[in-house]
Amino acid sequence: MTQPFIELNNVQKIFKQNKTENTVLQDINLKIPEGQFVCLLGPSGCGKSTILNLLAGFEKPTLGDIYVDGQPISAPGIDRAVVFQQAQLFPWLTVKENIQFPLKQSKAESKYITEQTEYYLEKTGLKKFENHRIWQISGGMKQRVALARAWVMKPKILLMDEPFGALDAQTRILMQETLTQLWQDNKTTVLFVTHDIDESLLLADRIILMAGHPGRIAEDIQVNLRRARTIENIAPQQEFIETKKHILEIMRKEVSRMIDYIH
Amino acid sequence: MIQLNPFKVKVISTLSLITFVIIWQLVCTFKLVSPILLPSPLQILDTVLDLFKNGYRDAPFYQHILVSTARAFFAFFVAILIGVPLGLLMGRSPVFNAILDPFVQFLRPIPKIALIPLVVVWLGIGEESKFFLIFIATFLSVIVGATAASQNVPYGLIQAAQTMGLGKTAILFRVILPSSLPEIFTTIRLSIGIGWTSLIAAEMVAATSGLGWMIINAGSYLRTDVVIVGIILLGTIGFILDWLIVKAQQKWAPWTGKA
Q: Is the separation of the CB atoms in A125 and A98 below 8 Å?
């Protein structure tokens, strides 16, 4: 078997607050091959965003090792792009300038910058708004800019932390389609955090179902639904129904365990 | 609350000012107050014309205005140039902040007039001491505001910049500085207000010209008309300065309050 592209070995993360210790992640072992679209699915507090932050290099594991493409992770880097729940764009720049920002930072050739910017402006449907300022566009469009800005860097992996969580249902469907198209064109390895079961089944090749207290992997689920998927054509399929039922059953078990835990 | 359009606001403010001046004139015309205590608006207009024609105490009128604004502008400029980066750095570096903050917090509440004797002993009675008094008042206030501004930069923006390969210095100048601009402009407005008020303190130090000096000097000769002209000018210049900064904020930080 070839070496996995992303590897987490016995990763543990403990947050210390005053004198209490909180084990956010315990014994996380995860291997992801290149080009896979993986959803981290679970309730809030299960540590799924922490895995993303560790991979991004924003935080360091208490124990264990993390490798991306054979390299240990210790700090943020341009090989790992992040799309946040809030778009985190620069309000002093226009839509176009925001997308160009990482390329200009890496001192790319101006011809390449123009070419790439145009490509992603087209792909994300932002061409008409390229000269708008960030505060003049809607939440959905902001998230499109964030997508373009992440993808334009040609990262090895793309880390997405509930990027569509704050959007309305219609906008979310549009964004999921844009994301799927971009992913099919580029085959970037994606780690996508969500608590929405339907969203994970629509997007992922593989779902890592997580449980909380302490945060750990409950189940590793392959999704074999045929692409290109839309929510209306996968919803009636047997695999969709069964996988969703299976996930809900595991979540149900976790909920009753949680109730015991709290009381 | 009722909403007023900007035009109506201007009309009402102008009418309010005109009414005030008319009442003032009437009070003087009917001799309700002695002209020594309160010269009438018409008398003040005469004084202004006279000052423009003959100057005040050997120096032309425009020179008093220019000297004061030049002193203040230079001090503002240096205070902003040093204070903004220093404040941003203090806001982002706990060590740096721990070193400098005690001095800033100790010096800031001291009325700057109290520093005059020391400043004169240390810097003499020339332009240096006048510059220093306006500078220090503005500078301390700029630092406090810039520190707070840089601490309010959303953490996500800094994380985003890190994933785009920006180092610490690049993040300070290309993310924290532009992101703090709206607050920095507000800070500059407040600081210049404070700096402008310390102009009088500065011109109490052996000056021979300047608006602050003119006011103090005219007071000792009971020239209340000149005093009032000086006060009106100080207020007007301060108002214009503030307006210029608001315009600069709209131009360079147009997302203020929107993002």
A: no
Å between A5 CA and nearest CA of chain B: 19
Chain B residues whose CB is inside 8 A of the A106 CB are 164-165
Q: Name the residue in chain B with its Cα closest to that of A94.
A: B255
* Residue B257 Rama label (left phi>0; alpha psi -120 to 50; beta): left
- Of A86, A105, A135, nearest to B165 by CB-CB distance is A105
How close, in Å, is residue B159 to chain A by CA atoms? 7
A81–chain B Cβ distance below 8 A for any pair: yes
Distance CA A24, CA A14 (A): 6
A99 sits in which H/E element: helix A95-105
Structure tokens at A147: 């997508």
d(CA A84, CA A188): 17
In A81-96, which positions are buried (b, 16+ CB within 10 angstroms) versus exposed (e)?
A: bbbbbbbbbbbbbbbb
b/e map of B79-90 (b: 16 or more CB within 10 Å)?
bbeebbbbbbbb
- Reported as a pLDDT band with limits 50, 70 and 90, residue A2 is low
Contact A82 B163 (CB under 8 A): yes
CA dihedral in degrees (A245, A251, A252, A254; nearest 10)? 150
Q: Which of A263, A16, A56, A259 is nearest to A156 (CA)?
A: A56
A142: helix, strand or coil: helix
In tens, the pLDDT along A117-173 reads 999 999 899 999 999 999 999 999 999 999 999 999 999 999 999 999 888 999 899
Q: How close is the nearest chain A Cα to the Cα of B98, in Å?
A: 22
Flag whether residue A64 sits within 8 Å of chain B, measured between CB atoms: no
* Preceding peptide of B60 cis, ω within 30°: no
**Beta-carbon separation of A134 and B255 below 8 A:** yes
Tell me whether A88 touches chain B (CB under 8 Å). Answer: yes
Comparing CB atoms, the residue among A81, A84, A133 nearest residue B156 is: A84
- Structure-model confidence comparison of residues A256 and B8, the more confident one: B8
Q: What is the pLDDT of residues A225-263, one digit of tens each?
A: 998 899 999 999 999 999 999 999 999 888 888 777 777
Q: Which two tokens stand for residue B68?
A: 């004061």
The answer to whether B147 and B235 are in contact (CB under 8 A) is no
How far is the C-alpha of B231 from the C-alpha of B214, rounded, in Å?
10
In the structure encoding, which two tokens stand for residue A24, read together?
């956010």
Residue the block writes with tokens 């220019």: B66
| A58 touching chain B per CB within 8 A | yes
